[in-house]
Amino acid sequence: MFNINTAKKYDIPTVASLNTIMVDGTGMCGACRVTVDGKTKFVCVDGPEFDAHKIDFDEVMVRMRAYKAAETEALAEYNK
């Protein structure tokens, strides 16, 4: 598995695409809000590609789990 700290250690330029956290694609819902280089960005408007060394990945992972219960429920309903 890729570790961003390894790339940072060797000063390897790294770009991350965060398109998987978009909901409406307009920035209105705020679901794709992330912190990049200490500033608030919206993936659907300002991205989805960002310098991976500047992304707050802890925040991204929390946001990715925000809809997990709803997604699990929807998948179960779909599979009926």
Task: Write structural notes for this entry.
- The chain is an alpha+beta fold and 80 residues long.
- It contains 4 helices and 4 strands, in the order αβββαβαα.
- The longest helix is centred in the C-terminal third of the chain and has 11 residues, at 68-78.
- The chain is globular.
- 10% of the residues are buried.
Summarize it:
Strand 2 (33-36) and strand 3 (39-42) form a beta hairpin. With 80 residues, the chain is α+β, with helices and mostly antiparallel strands. The chain contains 4 helices and 4 strands.
What would you call the shape?
Answer: globular
What sequence of helices (H) and strands (E) makes up the elements? HEEEHEHH
Read across the widest sheet, the strand sequence of neighbours is 1-4
Mean pLDDT: 87
Residue stretches low in confidence (pLDDT < 50, at least 5 long) are none
Total strand segments: 4
Q: What is the helix tally?
A: 4
- Helix/strand/pairing category: alpha+beta
Residues in β-strands, percent: 15-25%
Share of residues in helices = 25-40%
Q: Characterize the biggest β-sheet.
A: 2 strands, antiparallel
Rg of Cα set: 15 Å
